[in-house]
Each structure stands twice: as structure tokens, then as C-alpha cells.
Amino acid sequence: MSKRPGWVAVGIASALSITLNVVPAHAADYQRILNGSFADGETDWWSSGNTPSSVTDGQLCAQVPAGGTAVYSSMIGQNDVPLEAGQKYTLTFTATATGTTTATTAAAVHAVLQLAAAPYPTAFNKALTVTGTPTTFTVSGTAPVGGLHGQLSFQQGGAAQPFTLCLSGVSLTGGAIGPGGGRDFGSPVRVNQYAYETDGPKQASIVDPSDSPLPWSLLDASGNVVSTGETRVSGMDAESGEHVHRVDFSAVRTPGTGYTLAVGAATSYPFTIEDDPYAALRKDALDFFYDDRSGTAIDAAYAGTAYARPAGHLGAAPNRGDTSVPCQPGGCDYTLDVRGGWYDAGDQGKYVVNGGLAAWQLMDSYERALHTGDRAGAGDGLMSIPENHNGVPDLLDESRWETQFLMEMQVPVGQPLAGMVHHKVTDAAWTAIPTRPDQDAQPRYLHPPSTAATLNLAATGAQCARLWSRYDRAFAAKCLTAAATAWKAALAHPAVYAPAVDDVGGGAYADTDVSDEFSWAAAELYATTHDPRYLRYITAHTSTAGFSWQDTSALTDLTVLRLPSRFPLALVAAARRRVLATADRFVRNEQEQGFPNPNLPSDGGYVWGSNSVTADDAQIIATAYDLTHRRVYRDASIGALDYLLGQNALNQSFVTGYGSRASHNQQSRIWANQLNPALPTPPPGTMSGGPDSALQDQVAQQDLAGCAPATCYLDDIDSYSTNELAINWNSSLAWLSGFAAGTD
Ligand code: 9MR
């Protein structure tokens, strides 16, 4: 039962606004509106472009124009209201209409509750008469169809005269499932829904309240029991709020498809046991980058028909970028040709900070493969890309697509801040979902340079120079010049930060501590050049929180350990100590939690993109394996993949196409199948951002209230904070699956 007091409202007949708080008489009294008091201003509300609105003193007031052919030509609304089929919903709100309209010349306003997509199944659509006297209205109706994307709107198009409509105290109650409730994660037996390696570790988790071990059976595709054992009671799992058991069936080494794990009456999703399952995942996780390229037509011959599309952002109408992009108004007076690169994520911005990390991970995956004798990983023909028979390793070809773009973002010689790198190029305003890249009509702007972006180019340019020297000396030289120039510019401008709030039409990627980027760039530059001037800037420490686009400190250690013979012994020894200590901690996190996640945040919260935290932590564990060849580290790296592929609190594989219940509605403007069935889902091998306990989008706020951190996730295209796709998340999956594929 809701703890919220109920509202009993006096309706249209009353001239006064009277509300009484009483204890609700029935259970289905859940509040369905966010910020109905307007205490948070206009947050969660929108109004149509012809109806500008603002909030003052708890009232949202909108300037309604006269005219308009349809009643919905002027609207105020809230989206993503969860509706349940057959449930009754009751709206109350107080309204006035003033301006040219007086109490005697009343305005018509329709209160509408419906699903926001055709055929717009409607719970109510009620015409009300609003006057200059504050009046509280009550409207009820039953939702014919359920869905997460209900829309409450106030529609007033077609007015005889313009007027000001003010709303306050908006409440919509109803439904049988409380906010955040009613989620069914299916079987309590959680496995890697894709595959286990024949000779590798095989772990599962069981959600069960029992304090004693439980018998388990492994069944083959015909239902024959092939192995049995007992669970280990892991106990209460803080991140999921579940009581969990663990199962180890590593002893089973018979390849096959359609295996299931059974505990009591519950059965897992099916999975295979096979020799090298991660080769396919590595390929798909990498091919994502081709499908996501900007500035080139995506060819069906490589991407498949469903993912083929015209080139985006090559200056052809309606595109207004990226071949001659100006700075934001008031910025520089030059334009840059910044074609190419990868689109960052669900949006079509291109960000140097994040692009740097993603390119680095692809290049590092190549360099690892080169040094460890992983011929497939270091080879040509690894991926499905136009360059896969050009005699150059595909990981280099694909990363070059981004590195070239990163260099294009550098401020030209002779301009203020020459050598610095523009932080990002993004649309001036958010585009609709879906919008194919070639159909984006927004102006695009270069945002001011930042030290963080500049150091991302310094680091990846140096790495590029080192790796390309044997394939394309001219390109390698260009990378090195760009890197060295960027480094000098960063030293000259060491504290130029991107604004923390710059998130219209693109994300902020703000970072006000660049000591970690200085260290990472210095390590890469030193590894490539041996120039001792860089040495003293190598200072960062692998943080026990792993690494991310914002915190690159661990990338220093990973770079030093990639090329230990090039660095002073003391640096190598210190990097090794730190990486092993951090890896040990991540391994413990995996073993001690109910589900094998190396990520156990100190504050208990899962951040935006938590799946990349998991995969990046596993890269540190994998590096510990490369250093020691201790099996426990390889097993734990695979454990993180098990987590990502279904052995988790949600019974969810976060990788499209990999598992019975796999994410496929990640936020994307290209692959928006959820909104338009004619479009494909994201390509196989696309990793979702994953649980984010801060509930940073409206769908998450509506539907995940009270979630345990590891369950704060929805496979819904509008839940961008839990379910977007992004290059730095796929690069972490590509690195990790590459490690798994490239080691025995
Ligand atoms: O991955 C980013 C995450 O760490 C931040 O918390 C979040 C909010 O600033 O932004 C994420 O990055 C998004 C970027 O700003 C815009 N493109 C989509 C990215 C993934 O959601």
C-alpha cells in the first residue's frame, strides 16, 4: 500500500481549490507523476514549441497561442508514465486560464492519458473548462493497454484567443504495481546464457533463501543428467539484495549445445559448452565499430543488409557537418574538417575524451595480441570491414578510423590555443530517436579545446605512432607529430576544463583532474620515443576503482606493463605491484559476491555504464594473468564475462544476440527497433551500459524506484542512463573477449 496520503479533490463545479488529505481507502494509489508539485521546476515536463512555459512558485504557466487546427497543436505533458492494462487512473490538478481569457470567457483544455505511440490507446481524454478562478479537477479512466511509455498531457490547441494556462498540484494515481515493483527476473538459476569454454571455469548463481547447500543437476539438450553436485551458500548479496548460492561445474568438459542447470524445480536458460566461444564475441564486439562509423557508407557486404546505411555527416544535405564545422557561436573563427571517427553512443556526437579511451583499448588489444602470439587478434581478416584484406591488422585499421578523427580535432597552427584539441563536436540540440546519421539536420559545432582532450590525443597519437611504424610510416609520423604537439600544448595550458554542464545535443564528458591524463600520455609518449623528458610526468597510480574515460590513471600502469623493457625497472616494479594488488581485490569481489562481478563500489552504488566498469576491472585482472599466468586471474576474467552474459541479479545478458534474454533495446538513433520495427536492433555484440543505481533518466525514475543497485536496469530505449550503447563500453567488451579468445 502506498504511504502517500490520498487526494480527494473537488471538481469542476467548485469555484475554489479544495484538497483534503485522507488515508487512501484502496491499495492502488500509487503516484505516477514525477515532480507534480513543480518543486523541481520544469524537470520531467515538456511543452510544445508554440507553448513556452516556465515555473514560478510551484505553478507551471504556459503561453497558449490562439488558433491551431488540432487540440494537440498546443500541449503540456509528461512522458514515460507507466500504465497497466485494465487499471484505473485518477488525475487531479489545479488550473487557471488568464490573460485575454477571463473567468467568464473560459478556455477549453483536454486532459489526456494515453500511450504515446500509435494507435494511442487512451485511458481518458476529457474536455475541461478552465477559468480565471483556480479550480481543482479530477478525471479518471481505465488504461486499455499497458506500457512504460504512457503520456499525460494537457491539450489546448484551437483557442479563440491566446491565454496563460497555469497548472499546479498535478497528481496521477492508480495501478496495482508500486513504483519499482512487479519486476520478474525469471528463473533463480543464473548462468552465462551464451557459452562456457570446454576447459574453462563454469560458474552459476542461484537465488534461494536456503541456508544449506542445495543439490544441482546439469542436463544435456535431451534432458539427461550429466553431472550433479551441491551449491555453496554465498549468503546475502548486498548489491542485489538477494540471498545467493554459487555452483561450480567446471569439471564438466564435454562440448555440447542446449545444456541447462537445474536446482529444485528451477532451470536456467540454455547454454553451450564449446572450445573457443569468445572468438565470435570478439569479432562481433569489434564489428560494432564498423557499423558505427561516421563519414562513410556502411556497406552491406561487411555489415549485412540490415545494418547498411548511407554515409553520415559528410556535408550532404540535410547534414550540416562534419566537413566544415565552425566553433560554437562566439568561439573560434575557423572551421575544421572533422569527418570520420565513430559516433559516441546513442547520440551522434564525437568526443575526443571518450574516443581516446576506445581507440586506446582497440590498439592495446592489438599490441597485446602481438606480444602474446595471438595471431588472430594481431591479424588481418579478424573483422568484417573493408580493410580486412589490406595486409594491415584489422584492429589497427579500425582504430585508425578514430585516430584520424582525433587528429582532425586539433587546433591548427597559427590559431589561439594551437595544438590543443577540441573537446567534442556535437549537434546543437538533441535530435529525435530514431534519426539516421545522414538525416541529421542539426547544425554541429566544435566545442572549446580542453586539456583532457588534448592529452587523449597525446596518448593515443603516441600509441598510434608506435604501432603503425611498421605498416605506414607516414601515418605513424603524422600521429607522433600530433601527439608531441598536443603534449606541448597541454603543458602550456594544463588546466583548461570542459564545462561541467554542457549537455544540450551531446554529453559533457567533463573532467577537472587531468593529472591522470598527463601521466598516461607521458607513459605512451615515453614508450614510443624514449625521450627522457616525459619520464617525470609518469606519476599516476592504478586506482582501486579501476579506470574510465574520466580516470585514466590505471592506463599508465597498463602501458608500462605492456612494454616493460622500455621503462625504468622501478616504474615497472611499482606498476606490477599496483596492478596485482588491484587485481587481487577485484578477484575477491567476484568470489565474495553472489554474482561474479569484480566491481564492488565502495559506496555500494552502480554508476552509469557500470558494465564497462566490470569489463575494465576484468582487463586489470587479465593483465595480472599476463604477468603471472596464474589460473585464478584468467578464471576471474572469464567470470566477469559470465556476469555480463547472464550470471547476474537480473538474469540478463547485456550483449545483443548473446543469450536467451539479451539486451536489444539499447538507446540508439540508428538501431531503434523498439520504436520502429522496420529498423534493426543494435548489432550482435553490442553491450549495454548496465545497472545505474542513481536513476538518471525519467524511465528509470518511474520504473526502478527503490531498486537494489545491481538491478537498476531496464532494456528500454528511453532509459539512456541504464541502457545506452557506447564506444568505450564496446571497446572494453572487445578487449576482454579478445583476451578470452586469445588465451587458453
Ligand atoms: O559514460 C558517461 C557517464 O560516465 C556519465 O556519467 C554520463 C553523464 O554525463 O555520460 C556518459 O556518457 C554519455 C555522453 O555524455 C554522451 N554520449 C552518450 C554517453 C553514454 O551514455
Automatic annotation (TrEMBL):
Renumbered residue ranges of the record's region Disordered: 675-694
Keyword Signal: yes
Record PROSITE patterns: GH9_3
A Pfam family reported for this protein in Swiss-Prot or TrEMBL: Glyco_hydro_9
Location of the CBM-cenC domain: 33-147
Active site positions: 715, 724
GO molecular-function terms, A-Z: hydrolase activity
Keywords (A to Z) from UniProt: Carbohydrate metabolism, Cellulose degradation, Glycosidase, Hydrolase, Polysaccharide degradation, Signal
SUPFAM superfamilies named in the record: E set domains (SSF81296), Galactose-binding domain-like (SSF49785), Six-hairpin glycosidases (SSF48208)
Domain (Glycoside hydrolase family): residue spans on this chain: 278-736
Residue span, Cellulase Ig-like domain: 186-268
Signal peptide: 1-27
Chaperone is among the record's keywords: no
Protein name as it appears in the record: Endoglucanase
Organism: Streptacidiphilus alkalitolerans
